[in-house]
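Support request, please re-run this one:
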Amino acid sequence: MRSDNLFCLIAPLLLTGVVQGQSFTLEQVLGAPFPSQLTAAKKGERVAWIFDARGERNVWVADGQDFVHSARPATQYASDDGQPLASLRLTADGNTLVYARGSEVNEAQESADPDHNVHQPKQQVWAKDLDSTNPPRLLGEMGCAEEGCEDIEISPDGNWALWAAKKKLWLASVDGRQQAKQLSFIRGTVIEPKWSPDSKSVAFVSQRGDHSLVGVFDLGGEFIRYLAPSLDKDDLPRWSTDGKQIAYIKTAGTKQKEPLIPVKARPWAIWIADAKTGEGHEVWHSGSAVRDSLPELTEDSSFYFSGDRIVFSSEQDGRNHLYSLQLDSSTGLSASRPQLLTPGDFDVEDVALGPDFRWVIYSSNQNDIDRRHIWRVPLTGGPAEALTRGETIEVTPVATGDGTTILCLGSSATTPLMPYVIRPQERDMLAAGALPRDFPGEQLVTPKQVIFKSEDGLAIHGQLFVPLRAERKKLPGLVFIHGGPIRQMLLGFHYLNYYHNAYAANQYLASRGYVVLSVNYRLGIMYGRDFREPPNTVWRGAAEYKDIVAAGKYLQALPQVDAQHVGLWGGSYGGFLTAMGLAKNSDIFRAGVDLHGVHDWSVFLTQRDYFGNLALKPPDADAAVKLAWESSPDAYVENWRSPVLLIHGDDDRNVPFEQTVDLAQRLREHHVPFEQLILPDEIHDFLMWKTLIRAYGATADFFDRTLKKAQPIGEGLPSKF
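Re-run finished. Output below.
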């Protein structure tokens, strides 16, 4: 393809000035270690977390009253090899770490290998004794079949590690003397194992397609007990503190030939069963309205069975709130209506139960809608107490086993996410020495909260990054679109690795002279269920695209922005909306970078049954496929004029790589200028730090050439990359 004739649609940009010098590099702003998986031992004061430092992933620990200065690495992995750590656990006494290393497997049962190693990597479970200089010991292979399914459970006595993989449960001794073996023959796909308090039994979920069962296996036993088996889907088993009962969630089984287009309510109920006899009964059920549906935001993390109370989340009033249900100790039935613990116009996200079972600790955006802070409320109800506040962000609260200290992960507009211990009126950073000395915190922009209206009147929140110093009067603008879509971008570094990196990239783009608007479009979290689950969205109409258009027009109207030089970029769902912007509004968006985006929704609507066969055809299947196509960028390629950079890893397990392959063919047919950065063996959430540098460097370079210099582009790799 000749590219010199394809870029003439974008008017040349005469540069009358530039931002005063590039103040920092991409490597610097992406160089801070990213913490995750903060966890505490059930006894004592030890905590642990994972640090990802430029692709080198290690477990760190800290102890006692001197958390700040005792932080230290416990493992010694020393290369950017693309092998993630996950499912970090501490034994109850805090003496041993257990974790998974390596990625989940793809359909070919292969773990990701973005480093192109000649030896196939495997996802494995490891243990490390913290009072020993011995290296970590292998407990067994994991081979998790999908992203995020890693779930290692350590028995309360600290002797056994249990996990779900290859549709079964696997058991290994923490001391390494008994390597992993299948726990028991169990039909179906087995997930969510939970130990009984006495470490003698395991509850689990057996998924069987149109229904699922909660089962119990006694170690050394000969049979499986299923709890009140039914035609429904039972999920999320939780043991009572005395080990006599199990609470779980029940939703309806699958209905065949269900129409696809209408959005259906998903009512649910809480059941309790006797752990020995399996006899069960309902203790609470939701209403039948859409708002009463099982809450996706915290359905797993906020379900607890403690003493005579069950804590759960519900969106019945339109917000994601916590409720406490008291049970009658003699009958096991609910003694009263659920008590609302967190009233107000906000949403709850991270939830943890205090070790004394008296408090619920949680993060929310109460009184600070575009940030997070840590709160706690008595399990029996009462006023909530704010543990953190101000122009900072705090998430993932954990309490030490002795109940004396609460820790969290936190950030700000100019400080990356780090672990903190929460003190009265302040927070103290752990492992501050792990921050690189050249991290450019003082040179970063503090984004401004902005609120604008979509064409249908919906209030949309965003974060506006304006370069600190600029000589020229008009700057190019960029709209950043997050993925998910159930995410919220914040007024500071994000708590998810993908968006922590994207925030850093937006800071870098601002330093290069772009006004960047990160937009929280409808479908995102923390603005209420009605905002997150609006009608006519995703493949049912893509109404959320209206918010992207509104963001583009908002940028164009800013006095410091050159209205004729606005672009957009995003990944995953953000890649989908980037492609929509270029396909439907090349008049607004003059260039774009589409990272692993969805381009044709209709291909996902083919239904298959539990055995992989084509399911009975829904009555509105043809109309649904048509609607899905019309909600996709591919349907509008003939109107696409603006140049695009396509970035995708070809071992993506979230968005099929063929989505981008197919789009490229359509762009060629319509003579749309594009470049490509294809990353062999990389997955959706790029595993290697060098991949991030390459992808975001290519993004900045592409916008420099298309929005600043109006240079022609071709189909090859972006220049310099």
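Residues 689-708 form the longest helix (20 residues). The radius of gyration is 26 Å.
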